[in-house]
Write a structure and sequence with these properties.
Helix content: 25-40%
Radius of gyration: 27 Å
CATH architecture of one domain: Orthogonal Bundle
Shape: globular
Strand content: 5-15%
Distance between the termini: 76 Å
């Protein structure tokens, strides 16, 4: 029995209608041609979204239509609100011309896979190997209810999503050695890095419709070169960069299409017929192409810039080692809200923050920089959302420790380095961090008054994290409320409202710490500061007074309003 599943014509992309109808699965052709009729792509875990966009949706558009040459042409595309009749025809014609390449189970050229991929002993593994949330080998999620030995089957739609996810985010270390892989030894291939997105925190932009989201994630520039092609156009074994054989290379991408559809693994899905249709039950995942470094053409990451004061020789060695300029993709930190990284999000490429002699600087993603340049055309009220996702790996990047995601409403005016709004938002983020630090200092002083040592910065949960958690919804509300504000007086009013709420929330956390202190700690204790220096007294009242002073300095608007004769004193 011949199995088939066309990504072009069979439903697999879960999309809601902009008219409010429930989300349902649509084929690639419908999702692209009628993108203006759909809302945000619905996925099983957040890291699937960039995989689907980069591996399929965005490269099909750029391969069929090219990309806007400059920001003026980009705005002309966006102003239409949907694809023009000519663009629809070109998209449809491209999908028709490559229809066979998008068959998930094609016996000759299955999409994103190698037909006939095998090992010397004919081994395969359960389909859970490509599912990041399932137990397989050493990668066992906490509280997993399944084991690697349990039967496991994926629908074609599920298999397509996890296939793309594996190409982008797969774990590192040893992979199965495939027949035809010249680097395979004893049935294994070693030295495999993670998938390319595992090296960075992915920064996607989202608009009001799928059409707008797709455009927001396409950087302007020259059309693709003849060497820059998506993986489904590089399947000929005679192609020196073929993605259709077990052989792989270490190389740099030829361009955007090559980068987006990077085949970091050689994969084969094994499907079998069932009463409910084809089901993928077994897989083979082998080594694929290796990227020596993340190229600067990468549009979906923020960057950490090397210190300018680094020794020239050290900087040159770093450049030679990575084969790139001294900048590294910025990774997400587990448990850290996206707004706490506003200094990186709002550091435009065109005016990247100068790095210090010993401190790193930041540059935002090319796409956020592009959105900032289009601020006046899009309008300062445009409801831009920034979606960040990443994976934290453990044990030599061979297992997944955590999947991270967050999204923020981001006022476009904040991307203008000269705007009052940008300065206000950066100040808010800094104030939140400073309040957390103030509460941590309070905790340390109270512990010293009890005769204990402060909680180490890298061990346990410090109470400052509770402050950040309490302030999180306030910051997000402020970001949404600041959209479209230009008047400095209204921005200041928004900051004052934020500070007054933060004043109360931070005290609630501090008061809990004070209430938990036993009466004996009020007597205090003395600690030595070294020979010849006076002893330091630690008492609860002193710790409380120190916190209140720090809070007043941090939230200076709220403190001034509280002291004003017109204030009610709260």
């Amino acid at each position: 029995m011949t199995l088939g599943f066309s990504l072009t014509d069979d439903p697999w992309l879960l999309l809601p209608s902009t008219t409010g109808e429930p989300a349902r699965e649509r084929p690639l052709r419908t999702a692209l041609l009628d993108a203006h009729q759909f809302g945000d792509l619905v996925v099983e875990i957040p890291t699937q979204k960039p995989a689907v966009l980069r591996q399929v949706l965005l490269p099909v558009i750029v391969a069929a239509l090219g990309r806007p040459a400059d920001e003026r042409e980009w705005m002309a595309w966006h102003a239409q609100g949907q694809w023009s009749p000519e663009q629809r025809l070109r998209l449809g014609a491209y999908l028709d011309a490559h229809r066979e390449a998008f068959d998930l189970f094609d016996p000759v050229q299955p999409f994103g896979q190698i037909a006939g991929l095998s090992t010397a002993k004919g081994e395969t593994k359960t389909a859970s190997l490509i599912v990041a949330t399932e137990a397989t080998g050493n990668n066992v999620p906490l509280f997993a209810s399944r084991t690697e030995g349990d039967p496991f089957a994926l629908t074609p739609a599920q298999a397509a999503h996890w296939l793309l996810h594996t190409q982008c985010w797969d774990t590192a270390a040893i992979k199965t050695g495939a027949v035809g892989d010249p680097q395979a030894k004893a049935g294994k291939t070693t030295g495999n890095p993670t998938g390319p997105l595992g090296q960075m925190g992915v920064t996607l932009l989202a608009g009001r419709t799928l059409f707008e989201t797709l455009l927001l994630n396409i950087p302007v520039g020259a059309p693709p070169t003849s060497a820059d092609r998506p993986q489904w156009e590089r399947r000929d074994a005679a192609d020196p960069r073929s993605a259709g054989t077990p052989q792989w290379q270490t190389r740099t991408p030829e361009g955007l299409l090559d980068l987006w559809t990077w085949q970091s693994r050689r994969i084969r899905l094994f499907a079998e017929p069932t009463d409910q249709g084809p089901r993928v039950t077994r897989v083979l995942v082998a080594a694929g192409d290796r990227m020596p470094h993340t190229p600067e053409t990468e549009p979906h990451t923020m960057w950490r810039l090397e210190p300018t004061g680094a020794r020239p020789q050290a900087r040159a060695q770093a450049k030679d080692k990575r084969g790139s300029s001294p900048r590294r993709p910025l990774r997400l930190q587990p448990g850290k809200a996206a707004w706490r990284g506003l200094d990186a999000l709002l550091a435009p490429e065109r005016q990247a923050r100068d790095t210090g002699d010993k401190t790193s600087g930041f540059a935002t993603s090319k796409l956020l920089d592009q959105a900032g340049a289009l601020m006046f055309e899009l309008g300062e009220n445009y409801p831009l959302r920034v979606e960040l996702s990443g994976i934290a790996y453990g044990n030599q990047s061979a297992v997944i420790d955590d999947v991270m995601s967050d999204d923020l409403p981001l006022p476009l005016a904040a991307l203008d380095t000269a705007s009052d709004l940008r300065a206000a938002l950066l100040e808010v983020a800094e104030q939140a961090e400073s309040l957390a630090t103030a509460v941590n200092h309070l905790s340390a002083d109270l512990r010293r008054a009890l005769g204990s040592d402060p909680i180490p910065w890298d061990k346990g949960q410090r109470p400052g994290e509770l402050v950040l958690h309490a302030l999180d919804p306030l910051v997000r509300r402020l970001l949404a409320g600041m959209r479209g504000l230009e008047d400095l007086e209204r921005i200041e009013a928004g900051q004052l409202a934020w500070e007054q709420l933060a004043w109360r929330r931070s005290w609630e956390i501090a008061d809990r710490l004070l209430q938990a202190v036993p009466v004996a700690a009020y007597a205090g204790r003395s600690t030595s500061q070294g020979e010849g220096k006076p002893e330091r007294i630690h008492r609860v009242p002193l710790a409380e007074a120190s916190f209140l002073r720090r809070r007043a300095e941090i939230l200076h608007r709220a403190d001034a309003a509280r002291r004003s004769p017109r204030s009610d004193g709260q």
